[in-house]
Amino acid sequence: MMFAYRISLLLLPFLASVLSHKPHVALKFGDDLLSYIMINPDMSPLEEAVSVCSWVKQLSPTSREGTWMHYNTQDYHDEITLSDNLQWAWLQGRHTPHSQTPVHSQWYHVCLAWSFSSGTVTLYYNGVQIGSRSTSRKFSVSTGSIVIGQYHYTYKMEAEFGSDYSFGGELTKLNILKRKVSDQEVAKMYKSGVCSNYEDTLENDIHLSWETLLSDDTEKHGNIVKLNLTCPAHTHEPTTGIPTTVGPTEESEGGCNNRWAFLRLSDIYNKTIEKEMLQDLRERWELLAEFDGHQIDDTLIAHLTKHHCSSEMSRGDNETEESGDCNNRWAILRFPDFFENEVTSEMIEDLRGRWELLAEFTGHTIDNALIAHLKKHHCKTVE
């Protein structure tokens, strides 16, 4: 009798663990334009710090930027953009350089973390820092929207997506925190595994939780399926103990994706290439040429946004522009080809080559088909 009593005492912790164990659920997104979650939570608590952490399984072609999270605001596009191949790890409209390629069809853990006080964005893959960069402004918390599963062309609660960037993979434990997570916390998230409850210890710091996204109160559009995860062994203890930190590497070449990515800006995409558009684009690079020798940074972009908001030929004497339109006008300068680079004659000639090539497609609509054609046949700088 005493022996049975002792055995029951030994089993109590195990039974408590089983009874309190939460089911681990993933969401699988259909590989189409119809499968997404769109929400517009109050983001004001994130103005000075934010972290996005999730487990991701890439199922779409590796050449595609399958966008699993996209956050736009009225003031800034690509405030957060994360793709399953990690070619897009954007915060505040800029990519965090790294050289990591995820393993296709396998779960991996990723965190993108930032704070205004540190002035640094840090990118983690499977518990290890793989990239970082500096920042200078606060996080945009103006009117906007978060889309899970698609690349979103507007900040509004309207479905404007492109098939080139549908996610079509699986997610679990996606959480947005209102502070910058530490190296040790990220390592612990990964080492604890996809089926752990470690994130519960961060509950007070989580602004948007995975449980909220899973909830039936959060509308799920299209073909999104809940999957129960089976986890026979879910820890990932590295053979060398705590993962060592990898220093930032040079940004991997964006190639054709970066070269023509500006065509997806809201003032260009789905528009017909006409004389007025070409003239407006021409005015932009001719104006930029006047800043030869200047570095393209937040100061220069702010100047252009304030003093050169719209096309001179399209703006009336009393016409004003909303700040969102002005930011879109010069958003191209935040792409990796330009931001933090010096304005040179070579850069201006490259821009001139792009605009002249676009002129050959006058009358065509800038859509997925045209962008795919340009990426395939006109990848390099025009000589």
Question: Could you characterize what this model shows?
Answer:
The chain is α+β, with helices and mostly antiparallel strands and 383 residues long. Helices cover 25% and strands 20% of the residues. It has 9 helices and 14 strands. The strands form 2 sheets. Strands 1, 3, 8, 9, 10, 12, 13 and 14 form an 8-stranded antiparallel beta sheet that branches. A hairpin with a 5-residue loop joins strand 5 and strand 6. The longest helix has 19 residues.
Short structural summary:
This protein has nine helices and 14 strands. The chain is of the alpha+beta class. Strands 1, 3, 8, 9, 10, 12, 13 and 14 form an eight-stranded antiparallel beta sheet that branches. A six-stranded antiparallel beta sheet has the order 2-11-4-5-6-7, with no helix packed on it.
Supply database-style keywords:
383 residues, alpha+beta, 8-stranded antiparallel beta sheet, 9 helices, 25% helix
Q: Indicate the proportion of strand residues.
A: 15-25%
Q: How widely separated are the two ends?
A: 89 Å
| SSE order, one letter for each helix or strand | HEEEEEEEEEEEEHEHEHHHHHH
Principal-axes geometry comes out as globular
Number of strands: 14
The count of helical stretches stands at 9
The portion of residues assigned to helices is: 25-40%
Average pLDDT over all residues: 82
Oligomer: single chain
